[in-house]
Amino acid sequence: MTDTVLMEPSTTLWRRYFVLCKPKVVALIIFTAIVGMLLSTPGAIPLDLFVFGTIGIALAAASGAAVNHWFDQRIDALMERTRGRPLPQGEISPNSALVFAIGLGVLSMVILIAWVNTLTAVLSFFSIIGYAVVYTVYLKRRTPHNIVLGGIAGAAPPVLGWAAITGEVSVDAFLLFLIIFTWTPPHFWALAIRRRDEYARAGLPMLPVTHGVAFTKLNVLIYTLMLLAVSLMPFVVQMSGLLYLVAAITLGVGFIVQAWGLYRSEGDELAMKTFGYSIFYLSMLFVALLMDHYLMILLS
């Protein structure tokens, strides 16, 4: 089958490939990876490692996103949220999308191996496999615990950033991983509650489909309580100071309030509000980590 989109204007075609990279998701990945870089050392970080590390990690994330589009094209066509994507719309051929995804992955590995370090390349490669293959192909289609297990790959970016600068992975880097890992289920399940009918139509065993909305709401609340405890660990191990502690408690309590409201509500009217707060929570928590980090440097 010919790739008819080649007849379209190049700017439109470029934008379609850009959509394959899931730019909003990749932007959050880049942000958390950069935070990992900046927190990895008390001084200035090497500019070359920062630039090439960021580019390499971004390309790896974009590769995983594009592979996810390729594997999920049939499912995406059945869901209102995703049916407008380039592959379900026939705007890009499946073969072109797969070649594009593999090309991004290869380029990311070349950059990371040549100009960063092998550890970051290896970890990035396994993150691609974890998200694009293990989660998308197996977990997503077979178990309601998919997002919990699949969250391992999604929580990797700050570890990748840390490894890019230091060439190693420390306990502090693992704490950043643990925060995102614990944050992922309540973040995603809030969205899944709202989109449960679409997931059911696509035959995906998401938690609200297999166990009901009430059970999913309870799990959202439980995970936000766990997240508050996990988010305090950087202060407990003296990775961060009082500024971060205040932010973590304030943001964490806010997340619990959102989850409690969702749990007590009828239906799914508060699901997207909780989902939106979850993105705000993670962004502000990592900003607080950075602010506290540099405040501690200034005061030392």
Structure commentary:
The chain is 78% helix and 0% strand. It is an all-alpha fold. It folds into 2 domains: 9-169, Tetracycline Repressor, domain 2 (Orthogonal Bundle), CATH 1.10.357.140; 171-300. The longest helix is centred in the last third of the chain and has 29 residues, at 271-299. The chain starts with 9 loop residues before the first helix and ends with a helix.
Quick one: overall form?
A: flat
CATH architecture label of the largest domain: Orthogonal Bundle
How many β strands by DSSP?
0
At the first level of CATH, what is the class of the largest domain? Mainly Alpha
Number of H- or I-type helical stretches: 15
Task: Provide a concise account of the structure shown.
This protein has 300 residues and is mostly helical. It folds into 2 domains: 9-169, UbiA prenyltransferase (Tetracycline Repressor, domain 2, Orthogonal Bundle), CATH 1.10.357; 171-300.
Write the layout of secondary structure elements.
Layout: H1 10-20, H2 23-39, H3 47-71, H4 73-78, H5 94-115, H6 118-142, H7 146-154, H8 157-166, H9 171-194, H10 196-202, H11 207-210, H12 213-231, H13 233-236, H14 242-264, H15 271-299
